[in-house]
Write the structure tokens for this entry.
Amino acid sequence: MVKIYVDIREKESEVPKYLTELGVLVIFKQLAVGDYVIAEDVVAERKTVSDLAKSVFDGRFFSQLSRLTRSVDRCFLIVEGDLEKMKYITSNYKSVLAALYYSSIVDRVPVILTSDPKHTAEVLKYLSIKLYESPYALRTTTVSKNKPRDAPLSEWQLYVVSALPGVGIKTAERLLRKFGSVKRVFNASIAELASTEGLSEEKANLIFRVINEPYVKKVTRDLKVFTEKSKNSNDSSSSSQ
């Protein structure tokens, strides 16, 4: 059964009701950040169109976004309602749209648009299922393709550790604070890794395997077919002689 933690302030919305109707186990809890915890260290913040406009102009939007990105590895912003109606809510609606562009491009927080509470519930369930099936499929915190170059040593250390599977910048920081160095992170046992906030035993096991198992280059399917054909051809030649 899909399990989603819901902030107690969301009781007033219809989303939890629809989640329950969809067969989701809803657990109300006072969350430190966000409105819905849909998977381990993955949080969704929900805002109606009117609340989005208010939060942008009173400053809550950017402070909430900042807390989200600092606290968890992956987060999503769900905007519920018709954005076209923003024009009737505020004459400065372009500023609200600019805030959404900023969050998705600069802060790398994906923005998901939903039509109503029922649609929001369907999206939350879908994301939760996908993350359960493949914990890294919807990863939003990615390692930059550009190396830090002239950056401080600490950024290089974050760059290296955050390249591990299932490890974003926040979890990389936790690992480095806990173990003290990249070398100690790489030498950690599965149990030690799993005891770190944001890492499950499954993730810890995969990290341990990536670090410790011998490198074996995967043979592509085409190369396998070519090798098998060559072998069969040689066998045929040998038998005919």
In short: The radius of gyration is 23 Å.
